[in-house]
Amino acid sequence: MRHWLFKSEPDVFGIDHLAACPDGTDSWDGIRNYQARNFMRDDMKVGDRGFFYHSNTKVPGIVGTVEIVREAYPDHTALDPTSNYFDPKAKPDVPRWVMVDVAFRSRYAEVIPLAILRETKGLEAMPLVQKGSRLSINPVSKAEWKIIEKLATVA
DNA sequence: GCCAACGTTGGC
DNA sequence: GCCAACGTTGGC
User: Fold this and answer.
1) How far apart are CA A17 and CA A75, in angstroms?
2) What is the residue range of A76's domain?
3) A132: which nucleotide lies closest, measuring CA to C1'?
4) CATH value at residue A108
5) Which protein residues have Cβ within 7 A of any strand C atom?
6) Which of A55, A48, A61 is nearest to A139 (CA)?
7) What is the count of structural domains for chain A?
8) Going residue by residue through chain A (155 aa), what tens digit of pLDDT does each one get?
9) Residue pair A6/A28 in contact by the 8 Å Cβ criterion
């Protein structure tokens, strides 16, 4: 089992949106970055766990956890001209983009701020804490996962 | 709102 | 295949 980190803007789709979905489950659509797509397509398996990270907000940080409940399949929003995520280069026979389904698992009582993650020993190698990191899906090592879970207080 | 860093596009 | 221009991300 692997671990991941999913970034999302809470104003667009935050952890509360996910928790409110039927079964707390929704598709992680709209990924339009090849590296992030490849992680989903090639490496994510059902049962993998992930942190939910809020970006582009007052206090960016980790707010809870999710679990992968469906492996990669075509992201249909790329084919929908009315979608924000429409990609004219995507075709039904060549989907170009994929998504996975994730299920809400926990919400932390308090956000674990990026500033704290930066200060925490053992997390120096995380892409998230690197300057200029924009990758929306990051792999997380088992050791990093444990360190971060210890920082968390589950609501 | 600013702006640095990044990924993608497209002309050549 | 290079690389400048562009649009986007995301912390601050």
Assistant:
1) 19
2) 3-151
3) B5
4) 3.10.590.10
5) A 7, 9, 32, 55-57, 60, 114-115, 133-136
6) A48
7) 1
8) 999 999 999 999 999 999 999 999 999 999 999 999 999 999 999 999 999 999 999 999 999 999 999 999 999 999 888 888 888 888 888 889 999 999 999 999 999 999 999 999 999 999 999 988 899 999 999 999 999 999 998 65
9) yes
Residue A39, both tokens: 């992680």
Residues 6 or more apart in contact with residue A11 via CB below 8 angstroms: A56, A57
Q: Which nucleotides of B are covered by protein (CB under 7 A)?
A: 4-9
| pTM score, whole prediction | 0.94
Task: Answer whether any strand B atom is within 7 A of the Cβ of A38.
Answer: no
